[in-house]
């Protein structure tokens, strides 16, 4: 059994969460990765998460099923078209239709339960407020508020423990994130970011996530290993 302190890492299989897992490992934690299958149309990311967890040496990787299609309200969980070929101004002008209602709140609550059950007081998530400024649950204020909740609403927190919610990428650009990940040995060829992949799992190259990812590799000066359909 590892003598390292434990941390729960929310791992979607995307670029940001893979980098976050590498950061948690660098920080000296035994990483307990948690992936949520929530009915997302880009379910190929679940396979990517498993590959990333293996490659980055997660001590444990669990996948939970929670079907948010029951609520819908998002292009990722309902029959709503995923926006394509939007300009940077359009992508940052408001909360996009790819926002999943309360997703990060729900995911962090599950990560908190996992952390409390396995004796971890640190939780890592890969939210980013620079490239995804339209998402209200990717802001530093949200992370701080949830950390306060975690320490008020748990047995472990009330009995003297102290939960810490780590969002190491929250104020980094996509290029900065990629450079950081490369320095930590992340294989981005294993990751998946596209919201509307082809039946073969290829990235569409046109959704907001694909455009931001591709521009990030260009800005970072790092070859893009993503397999695009077009």
Describe this structure in words.
The radius of gyration is 17 Å and the shape is globular. The model has no long low-confidence stretch (mean pLDDT 94). It has helices at residues 15-26, 44-55, 88-91, 103-118, 140-152, 155-158, 174-183, 208-220; strands at 6-10, 30-37, 60-65, 122-124, 164-166. Helix content is 37%, strand content 11%. The chain has a five-stranded parallel beta sheet, sandwiched between helices. It has one domain (6-220): HUPs (Rossmann fold). The protein has 230 residues and is an alpha/beta fold. α1 (15-26) crosses α7 (174-183) and α7 (174-183) crosses α8 (208-220).
End-to-end separation in angstroms reads: 46 Å
Q: Briefly note the structural class of the backbone.
A: alpha/beta
* CATH fold type: Rossmann fold
Mean pLDDT: 94
CATH superfamily: HUPs
Main pleated sheet = 5 strands, parallel
CATH architecture: 3-Layer(aba) Sandwich
Cα shape = globular
> Could you say how many structural domains there are in total?
1
Summarize the structure.
With 230 residues, this protein is an alpha/beta fold. It has 8 helices and 5 strands. The chain has one domain: Rossmann fold (3-Layer(aba) Sandwich), CATH 3.40.50.620.
Task: Describe this protein with a few key phrases.
single chain, 230 residues, alpha/beta, Rossmann fold, 5-stranded parallel sheet, 8 helices, 37% helix, 11% strand
